[in-house]
């Protein structure tokens, strides 16, 4: 989110005129790019059309649009500059003067809604500081937010685009360098609380269907200066205050925690799905929160792509998905667009099995590579990922409709369906009874796990 000066050889006057043209409410930010059509017979070179995503097509009794609930993230797509620790910004957008002005924030937002509409995506998501600049103090920051929330409300109404979720950025400002809710200084925790208070208010105003907490700095770099138990107790206290305020103001969206194992801190407390579930149960918060799973975070935790989606769903806590992917060979959070059909099939199988992801969605927490510098690349990236998930949906629907894999997995556990197995599942069996069973039945027969058989079956569908 660093600011930058556009690389241009033109004079200051030319530049002002360049940006001024985008201030008009009817300005066009992506000229020459039409609403993206559905063209199922398109060839390989046609990457500006949907080949599979056909929003109204019915799959398993529900429209594709409804199963997939796509959302565009504002931070990467409209605040990302392509800067990395080794290089300057590469993604210079013609409407963005790189300043922290309200006028620039408005231009970015108008460009955003044109982009969502041309893609035909019905949801967006943002951090408070993505949409409005931080002011000199809390009141000023809140005033800036109000200006941009007014515009967001107007543009949501005009385009029909809705807010999947809002979140607060409690990690970029230097005050949060030692954490927000887990900061050893209560003054910083208080600042975070004040920010989330406002965040919940604007989420309510904009009709957000969820509210996300990603603990960007909630973790540690060294245990030598850290009291882990106190920090986790503080984090739980913070969440309890958020629940109380949500109820007080009548915000009905789902609260979501987004697990991540590391980066920016060496160890993040919300390590993975199972860690967050244990945290929620430990502090009695599991009825108030669900999880927002980001597969790039899952693979950073050393799991396979669909692991956290599967684990969260297994406990009825899969609330939403930040549908991106990483490069496990690199080992950091690359936030790439998901293009692998096997991965999207695995995720959509879980979503179908749990009867949908609503009120969550598939939010593209993804950024184009810093080398993908054209405006068209923003579209191509999202279209490719939307088609990849649409194909995943169709593959998963076929897998479930045919039921071959489901039936074989069920058979694998059939010894628990009756007799001693059913007694174990019901919690009725005892060690003495199980010993007696073994003495009577002897050595268990060895049964193949048949992993390769399952892998071959998936290849049949994908
Ligand atoms: C960071 C990340 C965030 C959250 C929202 O890795 O995924 O963008 O999704 O704060
Ligand atoms: Co995310």
Automatic annotation (TrEMBL):
The keyword Magnesium does not apply. It catalyses: alpha-D-xylose = alpha-D-xylulofuranose. Its EC number is 5.3.1.5. The keyword Isomerase applies. InterPro entries: Xyl_isomerase-like_sf, Xylose_isom_bac, Xylose_isomerase. One of its GO terms (biological process) is D-xylose metabolic process. Keywords: Carbohydrate metabolism, Isomerase, Metal-binding, Xylose metabolism. GO terms for molecular function: metal ion binding; xylose isomerase activity. Belongs to the xylose isomerase family. This is Xylose isomerase. The lineage of its organism: Eukaryota, Metazoa, Spiralia, Lophotrochozoa, Mollusca.
């Amino acid at each position: 989110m660093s600011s930058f000066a556009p690389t241009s050889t033109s004079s200051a006057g030319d530049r002002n005129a360049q940006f001024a043209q985008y201030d008009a409410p009817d300005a066009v930010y992506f000229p020459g790019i039409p609403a993206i059509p559905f063209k199922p017979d398109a060839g390989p070179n046609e990457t500006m059309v949907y080949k599979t995503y056909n929003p109204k097509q019915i799959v398993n009794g529900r429209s594709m649009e409804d199963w997939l609930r796509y959302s565009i993230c504002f931070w990467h797509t409209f605040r990302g500059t392509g800067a990395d620790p080794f290089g300057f910004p590469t993604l210079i957008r013609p409407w963005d003067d790189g300043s922290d002005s309200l006028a620039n924030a408005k231009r970015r937002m108008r460009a955003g809604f044109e982009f969502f509409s041309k893609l035909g995506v019905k949801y967006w998501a943002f951090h408070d500081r993505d949409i409005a600049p931080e002011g000199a103090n809390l009141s000023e920051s809140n005033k800036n937010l109000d200006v941009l929330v007014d515009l967001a409300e107007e543009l949501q109404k005009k385009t029909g685009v809705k807010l999947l979720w809002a979140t607060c950025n409690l990690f970029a400002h230097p005050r949060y360098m030692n954490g927000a809710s887990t900061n050893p200084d209560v003054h910083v925790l208080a600042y975070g609380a004040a920010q989330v208070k406002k965040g919940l208010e604007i989420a309510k105003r904009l009709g957000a269907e969820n509210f996300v907490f990603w603990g960007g700095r909630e973790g540690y770099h060294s245990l030598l200066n850290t009291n882990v138990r106190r920090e986790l107790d503080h984090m739980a206290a913070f969440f309890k205050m958020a629940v109380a305020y949500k109820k007080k103001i009548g915000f009905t969206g789902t609260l979501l925690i987004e697990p991540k194992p590391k980066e920016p801190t060496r160890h993040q407390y919300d390590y993975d799905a199972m860690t967050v579930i244990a945290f929620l149960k430990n502090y009695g918060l599991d009825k108030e929160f669900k999880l927002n799973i980001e597969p790039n975070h899952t693979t950073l935790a050393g799991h396979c792509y669909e692991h956290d989606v599967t684990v969260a769903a297994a406990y009825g806590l899969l609330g939403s998905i930040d549908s991106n992917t990483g490069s496990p060979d690199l080992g950091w959070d690359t936030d790439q667009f998901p293009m692998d059909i096997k991965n999207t099939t695995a995720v959509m199988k879980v979503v179908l099995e749990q009867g949908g992801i609503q009120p969550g969605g598939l939010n593209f927490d993804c950024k184009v590579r810093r080398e993908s510098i054209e405006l068209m690349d923003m579209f191509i990236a999202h279209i490719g990922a939307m088609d990849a998930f649409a194909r995943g949906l169709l593959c998963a629907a076929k897998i479930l409709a045919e039921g071959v894999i489901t039936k074989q997995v069920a058979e694998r556990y059939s010894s628990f369906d009756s007799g001693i197995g059913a007694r174990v599942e019901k919690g009725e069996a005892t060690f003495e009874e199980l010993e007696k069973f073994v003495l009577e039945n002897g050595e268990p027969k060895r049964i193949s796990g048949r992993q390769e058989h399952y892998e071959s079956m998936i290849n049949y569908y994908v």
